[in-house]
Specification:
By secondary structure, the protein is an alpha/beta fold. The chain contains 13 helices and eight strands. The protein is globular. The chain starts with a helix and ends with a helix.
């Protein structure tokens, strides 16, 4: 029951100020967000990849209100790519982008977001890697999928994200699986109405398995975004039944959550990618991490109590 409350707080300017000002916030945020600048995150990338893991990098920040901010977001990703190039990691270090950062919600936002994200995808391809378009709330998805389809005309490796809790996702998954897309499946971390999304955890889990089965049996490349041990086990079984080799799908988990499991899966030969966010505008990202899993909220509260 706490999840919807926290998600509502993620949109509150008053809560943003309170949480940001709390003296114990930063040590907890650092668990999920290892740096504010590209210079701080590049050593993290080198460390993770040196241990056999892969990464997807997210420059956090979603509340774009001007075209200038959207341009700045584009430029932040281009700077990231410049820093990744000397590492020569190829697809072991890809990027995740939220189209809201590129101006999607502004007037003429669909065209603006496409205009801003295309140079990032082009630059990523030039150093041998790719970009995944993150899913946001349900009102943005038609635009996201249209941009994904447009980018794949020139950059077929461009990925996208689907959310198991949305009713529409099973149909989206069938289309994307047939198209041979790279698709990350997650449960979903936005506050959505009952008219468009499952509200019960058990129903979300069932939908996740149905959708993942579609992806595993399709022509694309499934990316399993989950920390749930049961879903990880189910994913392995679905991959086995579909005849997929270990390099024909991958697991993805958040930086700072179940780090031992990251290393275990990699040691077993799985592709294990760590979703690593960085930047100064961390509030919305951080609050969704708390909403996704009660243990994350308990970690936050316990840290604040024990440090006082």
């Amino acid at each position: 029951m706490l999840g919807p409350v926290i998600l509502a707080a993620s949109r509150s300017d008053r809560m943003r100020r309170l949480v940001s000002a709390a003296p114990m916030t930063k040590p907890v945020v650092d668990r999920f967000i290892p740096g504010e600048t590209v210079d701080q995150v590049i050593p993290i990338v080198a460390d993770l990849t040196g241990r056999g893991l892969e990464v997807t990098l997210d420059v956090v920040g979603e509340d774009i209100t001007t075209r200038e901010q959207a341009t700045a977001a584009r430029d932040a990703y281009l700077r990231l790519i410049e820093h990744l190039e000397p590492l020569e990691l190829g697809t072991r270090a890809e990027m995740s982008v939220k189209l809201s950062m590129f101006g999607q919600s502004l007037e003429g936002g669909h065209e603006l977001a496409l205009e801003n994200v295309r140079p990032v995808v082009e630059a990523a391809a030039a150093i041998g890697t790719t970009v995944t378009l993150d899913a946001e709330d349900h009102t943005t998805l038609d635009s996201m999928f249209a941009i994904h389809q447009e980018l794949r005309k020139d950059f077929p490796q461009t990925g996208c994200v689907i959310q198991a809790y949305l009713f529409r996702t099973e149909e989206d998954a069938r289309r994307l699986a047939a198209d041979g897309s790279r698709v990350r499946i997650v449960k979903g971390a936005y506050k959505e109405p009952a008219s468009v999304a499952h509200q019960d955890k058990a129903e979300i889990d069932k939908a996740y398995v149905r959708i993942l089965k579609t992806l595993m049996e399709g022509e694309g490349y499934p990316m399993i975004g989950s920390h749930d041990p049961r879903l990880i086990s189910v994913s392995q079984e679905l991959a086995r039944r579909a005849g997929r080799k270990l390099d024909e799908y991958e697991f993805q988990m958040l930086y700072g959550i179940r780090s031992d499991e990251h290393l275990r899966l990699a040691a077993e030969g799985h592709r294990m990618r760590v979703y690593t966010a960085y930047g100064t505008d961390w509030y919305g990202y951080f609050m969704r991490r708390l909403a996704e899993k009660p243990a994350n909220l308990l970690f936050f509260v316990r840290s604040m109590i024990t440090k006082n």
